[in-house]
Amino acid sequence: MNYLSIPLPSGVRPVWAAPRDETRLGTILVEAGVLSAEALETALVQQRRSLCRLGELLIRRGLATEDDVYDALARQAGVPRWDPATAPAAPDLIDRLGAAACARDGCLPLATAGAITPVATCNPQTFDAWRARIEKTLGPVAMVMASRGEIDAGLLGTRRQALVRAAEAVPPPHMSCRSFGTAPVRRQAVLAGLAGLLMLLALLAVVAPVTFFVAIASVAILLLLVNIGLLGVGLIGAAKPAGTSPTAPAIARLPRISVLVPLFHECRIAEMLVRRLSQLDYPRELTEICLVTEASDSVTADAIAQTTLPDQMRVFVVPDGTVKTKPRAMNFALPFCSGDIIGIYDAEDAPPADQLHRVVRGFAASPPDVGCLQARLNFYNPQASWLSRCFCVDYATWFALVLPGLRRLGWPIPLGGTSVFFRRDVLERVGAWDAHNVTEDADLGLRLARYGYRVGLLTSTTMEEAPFRTHAWIRQRSRWQKGYAMTWAVHMRAPRRLWQDLGPWRFMGVQTLLLGSLGGALTAPVLWSFGLLWLGLPHPLSGHLTSGQGLALMVLLFLGAVIQALGHWVGLSITGRRGLWASIGLMPVYAALSTVSITKALYEVAARPFFWDKTEHGISPPTTPTIDAPHDPSRA
Fold this sequence. Notes:
It is a single chain. By secondary structure, the chain is of the alpha/beta class. The protein has 21 helices and twelve strands. A seven-stranded mixed β-sheet has the order 8-7-6-9-11-10-12, with helices on both faces. Strands 3-4-5 form a three-stranded mixed β-sheet, with helices on both faces. Strands 1-2 form a two-stranded antiparallel sheet.
């Protein structure tokens, strides 16, 4: 290539550029014999229907290699290809721009002894738009061509630990729990405080048992009424006609979607996961599936190595850091993603083939303040045990009634950890995920609300694997409860600020949802104890309630049980799981496990706040679930 020398001060190494070649990329590749004219025409037709660049499409479709495309782009732009051996990445310059920003923009400052800094990029089309911003920091720059893989390798090879530190501190400090439990003294103080509270409650129970029990029972009844009220709002919404769903505008060009799949100790599920996600029918040149693994996890690495990955899948290895959590892994991978929409799947997920298309249509039909879409979740192994069947009932009620009820009330929606999709700019604006929060999904749902965004609900259902053994269920549920407690503590550190961000109505919704969930599990035994009164057995309130009060209490508890059973029945009907109606009778036993799990959760809040008690996958093989034609009054 003939380069033009750029005049520089004496003794400064020059940087070269050649005249720009106005020949189109496809023509250059045809002239070079890389692809035929017919293949180019077909690719151009496909490109017109998407936001994918021609070079990316050719690489994803296997019509050209990365070297073919980026050599042609270098010729077209009149710049050289990057050679890491002669022009290594410059760590100090990367830090000045920010390693995560370099990954997001696909640019890499290179070492130079001259007045002009060469910057490798895999996005020549947007380099001029970035130039002014980069030059404010680095001074004059010149473009050098590199592939996406070369950029990523250069960043990871030089600033890996900087990227790890950034991934662990994305949200602002006042919206993160990373300061919790960092000092042993603080953990000991929390444990001492919990122990002191328990001792005080025990003392009150001995000194004034009736007063103590009346107070606790009043709280329990109030929480029961709140939870029944939430279910009632969902039932009212389900009983109303759905109306006309908003029509999505015609989508001239489909956006790119990046899906993050965090994996940890997944020896059984890798091959099945790849097969399931390969069935997504979104154009593969617009689909990027990122399998995110931990550097210390040789089990998953070996499983993936034995699996052939399709072109749209790639593996990110997250270096060790101060914590090892799913949100930290996703934060690390996010800057390297190319998608306009960012989605999440778990290792055991089996989404329907058209789910990504439904996500795109859902965003297109929604106003800009809908920053996130949550799909429904249910389970493909309900017949594994009574517990997995009850979990199906639980999820059907949550996704078909409770979440639509929260949306109807205008309250923040706690996200699920999977099958959730974000507008990328919104996700980055609100601070992505809190790497230290073990329910990063619920926390992010609240943060979206604080920034003024709403969550839309998709009727598309992703099937998952339900824990079917009691100890596995308790481990998972206790992690969720611990995360709810930490999320509440994070956002209530400055209650006035939370009030200002949300307003009084949604502020009350946060207290109701988070404290109501935790308090309901804690005080449930008090409600169970009233069965002793019904049976005429001794009870702390025996002789202290009038016959009218006792009757009113029994009627209230009976109506509460009926409404809960009705909610489960309607939830199963909406989600097409009528075959599980018989399991509704076991739900009181299932609910009692939440009281067991919350004791573990509260201990870990103080002793192990960042411990991720991982759910093991691939234990229960999929069965053929009984799914009827769902009645679906909700809309995306």
